[in-house]
From TrEMBL, chain A:
Gene3D superfamilies per record: von Willebrand factor, type A domain
Coiled coil regions in record: none
VWFA domain ranges (all copies): 34-224
Protein name: VWFA domain-containing protein
InterPro entries for the chain: VWF_A, vWFA_dom_sf
Automatic annotation (TrEMBL), chain B:
Region ranges (Disordered): 502-553
Name of protein: Uncharacterized protein
Transmembrane segments: 12-31, 244-267, 287-307, 328-348, 375-397
Keyword vocabulary terms for this entry: Membrane, Transmembrane, Transmembrane helix
Bias type Basic residues, positions: 518-539
Length: 224, 553
């Protein structure tokens, strides 16, 4: 009889454990997010840098504990850690995360204040490659690259960037893609430029999106 | 496909349809008997199955009703026992509190009575003793007064002396009377004291008498419960329902309080256990907050159980008083610590909210403005964080009522459901049976043309046979059979349970191998009315028809 009772208890415990395991596996918590923002600092696009600052502030307010954020500039050679202006993975404790956000904002403000002159060339591909590397290292469940640029790539001589990129599982969002003077003359150039980037991102396994209306930033994270 | 079938027999769909209809009707006519049997047996089968299930459900319902009855009576008995026990406890308290001083009171009253008795004896009137020289005075008084002046003088002196002695005696008597009155006057407060003390005793005894009356009433109620009287059962059921609803309402209020408490401590908990870890889709901080609240409720349960207010855990109630007191102290301490933790968490929540607000403002580019009287909500949150755990601790009382009443209510609901199912089952059975009957009639309605032809043919043949071959046979149509699904052709073929007038054979008893007596028909003709089962009747009629056909041949 005691053996029978013990067997009954074991069965009960096993059933409870399996039930808990099944219910636990059935529903996971919110996935961690990682955002990498590329800011074009070449030529006249530096004038748009305040918009990028606004977007980053919005992101800082939206991201929570466990999420990662980094901001880097696009210059003549962007495939470098030196171009990362600030980066942070927010602490699990809300108070610490708030402090990190403040520090991040200060670094960004300092960078914007000291930015006087834009770079001569625009290496967007290098920046994207650097972003993919950073995002994959964070191990986040959702990865996003925000490109704040007119998407007009202008590589320095000797730089090789015409090879396929690996962007699997990364969502690439082009923000504030301004129209150039030449685009106004022939809008097909603008469309072709966007299409070209879309093809490159899609071929690399990423997802492409364009968002020019910065008044609807909530969609940026809501869709994410 | 359907159009091909429609034009299978002819190019004209109407004609083809008519051929199809004729074929179907013919096929149905041929398969009439098995179809009727199928429908009949299906109807009966459904009916019996449903009746059986209804009976089973009714039995379950009866068993459940008995169980409910015993539960209600047991709970009523338990409650009454507890009430009686409480009354006895009160009497014990009264006795311990008031009548414990009775010996001293009795001593006081005895002292007073003794004193009164002494004083009474002291105040007793003692008549003055007659002087011993009274006889001498009488003898002297008998001497004539006018005989001698010396004697008269002596007599006067004696008179004066006697008057003086009388006055002296009277004065002494008055003095002693005054003394007695003084003593009696001193007795008055003693009497009053004794009256008040006796009144006090009376009041106390009256209190005990009231309690005894209440115990009598409870005992009568208890007796009724033991006897299982219907009125008591109904009263207890109603009481359970009331308790269930009241307990439910209070529990809902408690749940709301718990939610508020949860909101107070969930966010600051993320500072302790991290805000990014999850267990099965729920934040660890939320689970931690929930656990704290549940532990508080559990501590409240144990506390009230230790105080013997609730009786959810008999093992706690049956502990010895020392252990119970220890447990009470421990649970109260844990509850207080948890309440303090909650108060601090509530304060931390306020700080975090402020910090987040400041960050949001700075990210939006606004300057952070310090609000006035910001300390008021902070203090409010802290007080709420401290009070709510104690308020939640009292959830044990409605919970106990709810749990006890839920047994009765759930039993009643289950009883009602079973009853409803039983009725539905019966209705379905009857519906199934009558549906099959209606289908049988519908079947006959579809094939009414061949049936009518069959009837005409059969009638003509019977008329011919009755005229030519068997004039002594008469058939009388009897209407419906027991199954209620006969047809005219069936009747004419011998399916009638008819009153048949046939030549009566003489009955003679013969014994079979098994020793059973059977009857054989004799040749005398006699009119009898046979009541046999339809199947048997139909078989005999068929035999008769066969005999008629053979004789015709």
């Amino acid at each position: 009889m005691p053996l029978l009772k013990a067997m009954h208890k074991i069965r009960l415990v096993t059933f409870i454990a399996v039930t808990l395991w099944v219910t636990g596996c059935g529903e996971q918590g919110p996935q961690s997010r990682s955002v990498y923002m590329l800011m074009d600092t070449s030529g006249t696009y530096t004038q748009e840098i305040y918009k990028a600052q606004h977007i980053l502030n919005y992101l800082l307010a939206t991201l929570s504990s466990g999420d990662s954020i980094a901001v880097a500039r696009i210059d003549s050679g962007s495939f470098s850690e030196k171009d990362i202006i600030a980066k942070a993975t927010f602490d699990e404790r809300p108070s610490m995360a708030n402090q990190q956000k403040r520090a991040f904002k200060q670094e960004l403000d300092a960078f914007v204040d000291q930015l006087k002159k834009g770079s001569r060339h625009t290496d967007i591909t290098g920046g994207l490659l650097q972003a993919a590397e950073f995002l994959n290292e964070t191990g986040a469940d959702k990865k996003m690259v925000l490109i704040f640029s007119d998407l007009e790539e202008d590589l320095d001589s000797g730089h090789v960037r015409n090879f396929p990129m690996t962007l699997s599982g990364i969502e690439v969002v082009a923000l504030n893609v301004t129209k150039l003077r030449s685009d106004n003359i022939d809008p097909r150039e603008y469309l072709k430029r966007l299409e070209n980037w879309q093809t490159r991102v899609s071929n690399g396994g990423g997802y492409w999106r364009v968002m020019n209306d910065l008044d609807r930033l909530e969609r940026l994270i809501a869709d994410y | 496909m359907s159009s091909e079938l429609l034009t299978l027999w002819s190019n004209q769909p109407a004609l083809s349809l008519a051929i199809w209809a004729a074929m179907i009707i013919f096929m149905m006519y041929l398969g009439r008997k098995p179809s009727h049997q199928l429908l009949r047996s299906s109807g009966r089968g459904i009916y019996r199955l449903m009746r059986l299930s209804a009976r089973t459900l009714a039995l379950w319902q009866e068993a459940l009703a008995e169980r409910n009855r015993s539960i209600i009576l047991a709970s009523g008995k338990d409650a009454t026992e507890r009430a009686i026990e409480r009354e006895f406890e009160r009497i014990k308290d009264i006795v311990a509190r008031d009548l414990a001083h009775y010996p001293s009171l009795h001593r006081q009253i005895s002292d007073v009575v003794g004193k009164i008795e002494t004083d009474y004896h002291a105040s007793a009137e003692t008549p003055p003793a007659p002087p011993s020289w009274l006889d001498a005075v009488e003898a002297v008084g008998a001497i004539p007064k006018s005989a001698d002046p010396a004697v008269a003088k002596i007599m006067d002196n004696i008179h004066d002396t006697i008057v003086a002695a009388h006055d002296e005696t009277l004065s002494a008597y008055r003095k002693s009377s005054q003394e007695r009155h003084r003593i009696l006057g001193k007795l008055q407060p003693l009497w009053r004291n004794m009256v008040s003390q006796l009144g006090e005793v009376n009041t106390k005894f009256e209190g005990i008498g009231d309690r005894a009356r209440i115990i009598d009433e409870k005992m009568q109620e208890y007796q009724k419960i033991r006897e299982g009287e219907e009125s008591v059962l109904q009263a207890l059921t109603l009481s359970s329902l009331t308790q269930f609803f009241i307990g439910g309402v209070v529990l809902v209020i408690a749940v709301m309080g718990g939610l508020i408490n949860f909101q107070l401590i969930a966010m600051p908990m993320s500072e302790m256990v991290g805000g990014n870890s999850y267990i099965g889709g729920m934040r660890t901080s939320d689970i931690a907050a929930l656990v704290i609240i549940l532990v508080e409720i559990a501590m409240g349960l144990f506390l009230l159980e230790s105080l013997r207010i609730t009786h959810l855990f008999p093992i706690i109630g049956s502990m010895d008083d020392k252990m119970r007191r220890k447990m009470m102290l421990i649970t109260l301490t844990i509850l207080t610590i948890l309440a303090t933790v909650e108060a601090s968490l509530a304060y931390m929540r306020d700080l975090l909210a402020l910090d987040r607000e400041a960050l949001t403002q700075s990210l939006a580019g606004n300057t952070v403005v310090e609000a006035n009287f910001r300390w008021i909500p902070s203090v409010g949150q802290m007080v709420m964080g401290f009070i709510l755990p104690f308020a939640l601790a009292f959830v044990a009382i409605p919970l106990e009522s709810f749990v006890h009443a839920a047994r009765t209510v759930l039993g009643l609901v289950a009883q009602g459901v079973l009853q409803l199912l039983s009725v539905c089952s019966r209705l379905l059975g009857t519906l199934g049976m009558y549906s099959c009957r209606v289908l049988t009639h519908l079947y006959d309605l579809v094939i009414m043309v061949p049936l009518s032809i069959e009837t005409w043919v059969a009638q003509g043949r019977i008329k011919f046979n009755s005229r030519e071959a068997l004039p002594s046979y008469r058939y009388a149509y009897s209407g419906n059979d027991n199954q209620g699904n006969h047809s005219v052709s069936d009747d004419l073929r011998g399916g009638l349970s008819a009153d048949v007038v046939e030549p009566e054979l003489p009955m003679e008893e013969t014994s079979t191998d098994s020793g059973r007596k059977t009857t054989a028909r004799k040749s005398t003709t006699k009119t009898t009315t046979r009541k046999t089962t339809p199947r048997k009747s139909r078989t005999k009629k068929e035999d008769n028809d066969d005999a008629i056909i053979e004789s015709n041949a």
